[in-house]
Amino acid sequence: MHLVASPEQQMIRDSGAKLFGRCERPRVGTAAAFDAALWGELAANGWLAFLADPGAAGADVALFLLEAGRAGVSIPLIDCALAPGRALRLAGRADAAERLVRGEGRVALAAEPVAGRNAPVASRSGSAWALDGECIAPAGGWCDAFLVAVELDGRGPDFALIPQDRPGLTAMRYAGMDGCQHARLRFEAASAPSGTLLGLSADGVGAVLAAMRAAACAEAAGHMAALLAATRRHVLARKQFGKPIASFQAVEHRIARMVIAVEEARSLALFAAIRLAADATERDRAISGAKAKIGALSRFVAQNAVQLHGGMGVSEDMPVGHHFRRLATFEARHGTTRHHRDQVAAFVRGAPSLGGSLLDAGAGAA
Questions:
Q1: What is the pLDDT of residues 194-234, one digit of tens each?
Q2: What is the DSSP letter of 314?
Q3: First to last CA, the chain
């Protein structure tokens, strides 16, 4: 897909490149301190509100997040702005959404399953709800509240806005390999008053999750572009037998395949973002196809970037290792590559989906 950027889209892309270009990459095994200054700047300039707007053009958001991925930032734009902001706006929680986009308090979407554990379920307990189960809130270690994806008894999926100090909730914070501070949440009869639930329909929940997955595809395409650029520079600078290794045919062919993979990923990410405006079936088919294909392409690009750099490719002195870890996280989150391949196969067979809950996208790892 060749997208000719409008002047407004070029402004979005340039602004993203300028904002994110000065961010530092976290070191492996640690979690960077939350960049409150950058978050405040994003809020003050309206970028958080832009991401949290359900009516924002998908391609515009994708171009912005491509630059975030290219810069390798670990600030949680998707998990703490786009997804919770859109859910709150769709639910008519204007006050809560405004506080979020102004940077007043941070909320993380908690929708990632824990392998071998039951996802959060809400059951009636008098006039309130009781939550039981476990999930992961990516970037939740930086937040003071969680927007938890839950299954309601007899009512389907919804989101519940839960503060971190809610009785019955245990939050275990840990540093993820992507440089973010995550939280594993365990609910044991945690009380959730009726007002805690957003009251979204299944279509509303599906729209939020679809937007999140499409955004993740765009960010991943940015990481891939950064790996390609770094690898090109390296093979042009490194010499063997008196000439750059870029002149060797095997290396030329490998770089050419990486170029094709990056362009495929970018095109698929933009296509998925544009299809957010389609009906639910077409939207989900496009996003599952993009997520499955970009997952495979990202692995190819990341592995070849490390291979062509050699051992230094995973050192802390090079950006390659950080982008590699971010892409490994992308492949495992928002539904694994295998899950989305199966989903695409179901669409091809004529089935609308694999069945089950909207929230069941395969156990990932943050």
A1: 889 999 999 999 999 999 999 999 999 999 999 999 999 99
A2: G
A3: 30
Residue partners of 88: CB distance under 8 A and separation at least 6? 52, 94, 96, 97, 100, 147, 161, 198
Residue 321 has phi, psi (to 5 degrees) of: -60, -40
CATH fold of 7-105: Butyryl-Coa Dehydrogenase, subunit A; domain 1 (1.10.540)
Position 303 scores a pLDDT of 96
Q: In which residue ranges of the chain is pLDDT below 50?
A: 28-29, 354-357, 362-366
**Maximum Cα–Cα distance across the chain:** 78
| pLDDT the model gives residue 317 | 75
The predicted structure's pLDDT at residue 87: 97
For 118, half-sphere exposure in the C-beta direction (CA atoms, 13 angstrom radius) is 9
Give the Cα separation of 348 and 285 in Å (integer).
Answer: 9
Gap between the Cα atoms of 76 and 58, Å rounded? 18
Q: Which pLDDT value is given to residue 355?
A: 44
Residues 192 and 152 sit within 8 Å (Cβ to Cβ): no
Residue 138: name the closest of 208, 80, 55 by CA.
80
Name which of 272, 278, 238, 268 is nearest 255 in CA terms.
Answer: 238
Render 148-203 in DSSP notation, one character per residue. Answer: EEEEETTTEEEEEEEETT-TTEEEEEEE-TTS-EEEEEEEEEEEE-GGGB----HH
CATH code of 202-348, in short, is: 1.20.140.10
CATH number of the domain at 109-196, please? Answer: 2.40.110.10
Give the type of residue at 128: A
- Say how far residue 233 (Cα) sits from the centre of its chain: 28
42 class by beta-carbon count within 10 Å (0-12 exposed, 13-18 middle, 19+ buried): buried
**CA-based angle 272:286:63, to the nearest 5?**
5
Ordered by start, the domain boundaries in the chain are: 7-105, 109-196, 202-348
